[in-house]
Amino acid sequence: MKLRNEDYFFTPQQTIAVEPRNPQIAYPEHTHDFNEIFIVTKGNGLHIINDHPFFLCPGTICYVHSEDLHLFKKVNNLNLVNILYREASCFDYLKNVNQFFPNRQKNVPFHWLLNQAAFSKITCILNEFVQIKNDLFPYGEGLFLQLLINLQNGIYSTVGQNNNEQHIIQILRWLHFNYLQEIDWNQITQQFDVPQRTFYRYVKNKLGLSPHTYLRKLRLFHAYFFLRKTNKSITDIAMDCHFNDSAYFSTCFKNEFGFSPIKLRQ
């Protein structure tokens, strides 16, 4: 399935369109004529892009290129705002904006989690976006530049609403790259200078999950990708993802994705 420019942009001159999804329903795999940034404002769900699963929660942002294949499933009151935009060469008033987008050649992640301070600033910009008329192209491109700058600041921010918040987000980012390691929560929270109880409470409130459940999700997401992209046996992939019992792995995998590992490979 491919979503077309003419269904979302009112004129050929329009370079940006804003599409709130309240709620975002489960949606099958698709691609676009255009690019997209979406920002989760409420709820949670599963986003699979180019066979990489990601867990969505409030404050998650994602960059989707026109060539990406992606889908939404297991949505739970998921609300988000889509900012659709054409290629950078189509902008009339903005130049050299590609520097604000993830560098695909350097394998930069598609998803980030913003702290509350950055999320609040971006929410204000999104509210302005929703209220402007679609023919106000200069103003729309100006807001888009503000959004891109604030997203970059939020992604690389070292200051959160408080020190604990930013340190916890740093832990979650660290987990995104190190989830296949043996995880000692006490050691990690000490390393990032966060009380363990504070970390557990924040993760539960932000993600709606315990840290242990979130870690298991990350490992199952890894398994999904390797089942799709490699010929490794299901047992070996399960072991790589810290599941010593392949039957238990299959049960957890089916609970997460709605089908078994064997079914995914058929």
Keywords:
8 strands; 266 residues; globular; 3 domains; 22% strand; Arc Repressor Mutant, subunit A; alpha+beta
Low-confidence stretches: none
Please tell me the total number of domains.
3
CATH architecture of the largest domain: Sandwich
**Average pLDDT reading:** 89
Could you explain the architecture of this structure?
By secondary structure, this protein is α+β, with helices and mostly antiparallel strands. The chain folds into 3 domains: 154 residues, Sandwich (Jelly Rolls); 46 residues; 53 residues, Homeodomain-like (Arc Repressor Mutant, subunit A, Orthogonal Bundle). The protein contains 9 helices and 8 strands. Strands 1, 2, 3, 4, 5, 6, 7 and 8 form an 8-stranded mixed beta sheet that branches. It starts with a strand and ends with a helix. The mean pLDDT is 89.
